[in-house]
Amino acid sequence: MLFNPAERHFAEAMSRLVNTNPFLPDWVALEREALGPAYRDAPAVYSRSGIWDPRRLHPNLQLLHDRNTQLAEQARLRLEQGVSATDEERPLYESIALYRVYENCYEAFSPVVESTQPASSDTKIEAQRRKTRNEAISFAWDQFLSDYDRYFRRFGRKLWEGQEPALVFACFFQMRRAFHHIYNNILGSSKKAAQLRGAVWQSIFTHDLRRWSRSLHGRMGDFTTLITGPSGTGKELVARAVGLSRHVPFDPRKKQFVTNDPKRPAADPGGSFYPLNLSALAQTLIESELFGHVAGAFTGAVSERWGKLDEEVCDEYGTVFLDEIGELDAGIQVKLLRVLQDRRFQRLGENEDRKFVGKIVAATNRDLPAEMRAGRFREDFYYRLCADRIETPSLLDQLEETPDDLYHLLFFVARKAIGDEEAEPLALEVQRWIDHNLGPDYPWPGNFRELEQCVRNVMIRHTYEPVPLRARPANDPRQELAAAVAEGILTAAELERRYFTLVYAQKGSYQEAAEHLGCNWRTLRAKIDPEFLRKLHAGETSDSKAVPRN
Fold first, then answer.
1. Order of strands, edge to edge, in the sheet holding 319-323?
2. 238-391 — its CATH code?
3. Which ranges of 186-328 does DSSP label H, i.e. alpha helix?
4. What is the pLDDT of residues 457-503, one digit of tens each?
5. Domains in the chain: boundaries
């Protein structure tokens, strides 16, 4: 037999692991199953805490790599020596060999994926960088072919899902980029942060990696991704992770990732993300930015302009990010609806149809169902946007679950602001300032964006003054709610959540509150605002009402 019982147990776990989302708890559970007694205590999910290399932070990943490499080599040698694999053993061998080939590609892709150099206006510098990148890709391809021959071709075995080598290589490159962008930019060890990373991975590869590899890898651009969540929660980081992890075909003859555009035959997966903040533009300019215009289309249009949706700007492997999609007026929603339905649009002042060939990612901090009920957002437009939804959690939600994440987030912000050398002392300085002046219960209403400004303020002036968002009557959350309603500062969703919470606190149970509100108790429970409920409980010391049950 190709495997003894212990080896077979490991290979069976690896067979499931190679098709598992690396950011969800299932991956770590399979690590534990595969390694058995050798497994070391580690976090339940993969998250970065100031360390770039995941193997330093997650030692089981290195143990898994070492054991898989050893078993793949042993199995390969046994096959060379004439050992026959059973029908049950063949797919197990393919899984451990596939993981071995991917791990080698992971290292070979690193110089390309992890380069953080910004684009240069100097054509010679850019040409040298392009040459260096192409050389790294060529080396990775040669390494891949060598491994393919070593582990698969000489034994007549199939690559992943029986795909051609160039396609598997392109899929590996996409997975390497996706892991990099997700792991290094979506931080936090809380359950909500882990769910967010897992949701982004699914947005790129779906929940079924096998089906994606067979038929969906080249079609994911057809599905719009909608990112929702409070302002300042990193929606653009999520959009970038999705947009910069698109599948790009590989041409083995040219040893390059390629497009179908003869004007741009070489693809640049790192430079194919085109953000547009709709709230920063007047409605009259949004159409021009999206669709482009011809000369004379309107006053001031002295020359033609390509829009973000034009193939001249965004090719078939690019992504247009429409931030604050909830700000669009109805007329532009109709025009964008056509883009989402049949991928057609017209430039301003032109009657010729043009085709949008890329992917759209949209984001908003608005409650779109509430906007639809108010007649400000078209239902047909919404249902074209929501095929793939990702929700970003607030900073408060994450820190309530894992307070220690604050330092790691501060380190991340400090590193971006001041560089590697000074990041740690600055993060510690800001942490001490926050502990002394804001305390552990500060709610961070501006989320990650406010945290960034706090770091910069403390770095420059050694102080930070939060902006008071509204006057809040002391010790009475009911008056606080009434004042917020009188000022008209709550969204429909916020008002509904707080009112439902108030009724629940008064009635004493989900069932009684739901009957009073005319809804299902499960619907009521999903809308409870935990922070507002805590304030209501805290203010009931002189109230005769019981604390809510169940």
1. 273-277, 319-323, 359-364, 225-228, 388-391
2. 3.40.50.300
3. 191-205, 209-211, 235-243, 283-291
4. 999 999 999 987 554 445 578 877 887 787 787 888 888 889 998 88
5. 5-115+122-217, 238-391, 395-461, 477-538
